[in-house]
Amino acid sequence: MSTKATVMNDERPLKKQEPNAVSNFTGNVTGTWGKFTNFLSDVRAEMRKVVTPSRKEVESTTTVVIVAVFIFGLFFFAVDAFFSRVVEQILHKLGAQ
């Protein structure tokens, strides 16, 4: 198995290091600044789509969450109590105190 990678038909021009690095640097900053301003305009557009829920919606979803947490809490309490008793019985039969 060969570990050497070959690139076929790669006709991209090789990038040369230019002596005037400042102009290359400022061009990159302009591109970055443009991307940043584009990002901010996208954020603003998305924030315009945000809808604040009404008080009734908040109350109903809060009630659903509280009831679900209570039910899951009872379920996990029951499962934990069951397995605690099972492990306790197994250890008692094996002679552990």
UniProtKB/TrEMBL annotation:
Location in the cell: Cell membrane; Membrane
Pfam families: SecE (PF00584)
TM region positions: 63-83
Residue runs in coiled coils: none
A single BP term in Gene Ontology: intracellular protein transmembrane transport
Entry keyword annotation includes Transmembrane helix: yes
Topology with respect to the bilayer: Single-pass membrane protein
Taxonomy, superkingdom: Bacteria
Keyword 4Fe-4S: no
Keyword annotations: Cell membrane, Membrane, Protein transport, Translocation, Transmembrane, Transmembrane helix, Transport
Cellular component per GO, a single term: plasma membrane
Alphabetized GO MF terms: protein transmembrane transporter activity
UniProt family annotation: Belongs to the SecE/SEC61-gamma family.
Functional note: Essential subunit of the Sec protein translocation channel SecYEG. Clamps together the 2 halves of SecY. May contact the channel plug during translocation.
NCBIfam families associated with the record: secE_bact (TIGR00964)
Subunit structure: Component of the Sec protein translocase complex. Heterotrimer consisting of SecY, SecE and SecG subunits. The heterotrimers can form oligomers, although 1 heterotrimer is thought to be able to translocate proteins. Interacts with the ribosome. Interacts with SecDF, and other proteins may be involved. Interacts with SecA.
HAMAP family named in the record: SecE
Name by which UniProt lists this protein: Protein translocase subunit SecE
Gene: secE
